[in-house]
Design brief:
4-stranded antiparallel beta sheet; 3-stranded antiparallel beta sheet; elongated
Length: 149
Amino acid sequence: MAKWDPFKDLSELRERMNHLFETSLTRERELAAGLQAGAWSPVADVYETEQGMVIMAELAGVQQDEFEVRFDGANLVLRGERKMSEARSGASISRLEREYGLFQRTFPLPDWASHDTAAVEAGFTDGVLRVTVPRRDEAAADRVEVRSE
């Protein structure tokens, strides 16, 4: 017979409530951004190196032709869709924990980041997208040359 641990139950309840609040807040932001209900948001790591800003996003189950990466003003936007496989779409599902449907993540870029799409490096391996936005050339960035007359 197992001994009842009320703190374990409270901990599990707290985790479920946290997930509920996080999910509802994410859904509100997605709906405000114009995404349909049921949209999800992939998890990502963002960090800065000497070369620039690196974004690594988990896109397990998403094919390379099902997402896009683009600049939108001072932001880098990752948008796409994870589709449910045909084998599961008609099945009687016991549990569905993975999220499907449209997704979008917006990453604000620092002032020093280049907006030259040719300079951005992006790779997709084993369901992980890695985007590196290089630093722009500070000497030439936003500088107006003044000629003497």
